[in-house]
Amino acid sequence: MKLKLIVDGNLAGWAQTALIVIGIAMLYFGLSVERLPRPLALAIVILAIPVAAIGGYCGRAKALGLKPFDNSYKKARDSYKVKDGENNK
Question: Residue 29 and residue 42: Cα distance in Å, rounded?
């Protein structure tokens, strides 16, 4: 069995959940553990917010049917290329 991280242009459901849970856990432990050095605790808290946000935003994108990790932009970029013998006016 092979786990896929990106399914249909979006993060898999398990990956979204994992990012949210890991981000919340990092935030909790960064704020509550007193034995951590202050710069390390601050770094953990600063990293926790984007980790949880990425998971949450991917969940919202999936609910709206958006595909943030899709390669469809390549087709659009290729459609603007000038073919040989045509003017660019």
Answer: 11
List Cβ neighbours of 37 (8 Å cut-off, separation of 6 or more).
none
The whole-number mean pLDDT for each consecutive block of 10 residues of the chain, a chain of 89 residues, reads 85 93 96 93 96 94 88 77 67
Distance CA 58, CA 65 (A): 10
What global pTM score does this model have? 0.76
The string of DSSP letters for 14-81 reads HHHHHHHHHHHHHHHHHHH-SSS-HHHHHHHHHHHHHHHHHHHHHHHHHHHT--TT--THHHHHHHTS
Domain membership of residue 78 (yes or no) is: no
The total number of structural domains that make up the chain: 1
Tell me if 81 is assigned to some domain: no
